[in-house]
Design brief:
This protein is mainly alpha-helical. It has helices spanning 4-16, 37-49, 58-75, 85-93, 97-108, 112-130, 135-141, 147-158, 162-168, and strands spanning 21-25, 28-31. The protein has a two-stranded antiparallel ribbon with strand order 1-2.
């Protein structure tokens, strides 16, 4: 579950199968009481139709929490973290970063850092396309140390400078769910 729409889908499907929940957040939901096996099967099938997966094992859940923390940081908060990403994730999830990093790479086939940078670049592309912020504001909002750093990363990921990207109004952006 990587976006707010996904949360709405999960809430709706939980209600359809008669499961009460205390919360639904990006990457997790807490069910109140005990779920019957047939309810969980119905929920899993309904979520699958929407492109979501019901997870039960601890490793998968932790990986989703990592994704949720990164997505929340990049897409849904103005918060400027005062520590590096590894410390931020360790503190937020109460696990050693080496463990989180190894687990994430094992399950996703990519590093936490690459996942984070991909989301930052997609967010930067979104800001550039909507043309509401200048590059200095985008760099600040996405926690880049400078406009040059943002420009270099954008060029690495897209092959285009920010000004060239803006001129093209590149429609090849990746949806949040597919990053």
């Amino acid at each position: 579950m990587v976006c707010i729409r996904c949360q709405a889908v999960v809430r709706g499907e939980l209600e359809k199968v008669g499961l009460r929940y205390s919360y639904v957040k990006i990457g997790e939901a807490e069910i109140v009481g005990n779920a019957r096996p047939e309810q969980l099967i119905q929920l899993a099938l309904a979520l699958k139709k929407s492109g979501l997966v019901l997870m039960g094992d601890r490793k998968s859940i932790l990986v989703e929490k990592i994704k949720g923390a990164i997505i929340g940081l990049v897409h849904y908060t103005e918060e400027q973290i005062k520590v590096n990403l590894s410390d931020y994730l360790s503190e937020k999830l109460n696990y050693d970063y080496t463990y989180l990093s190894n687990l994430f790479s094992e399950v996703n086939g990519t590093s936490i850092e690459k996942f984070y940078l991909t989301h930052k670049i997609e967010r930067a592309k979104e800001f550039i396309v909507y043309d509401e912020l200048n590059l200095t504001e985008i760099a600040y909002k996405l926690h880049y140390s400078s406009v040059a750093h943002l420009s270099n990363q954008l060029r690495q990921y897209t092959g285009l400078t920010p000004s060239r990207f803006k001129k093209l109004r590149n429609s090849e952006r990746v949806t949040l769910e597919n990053v």
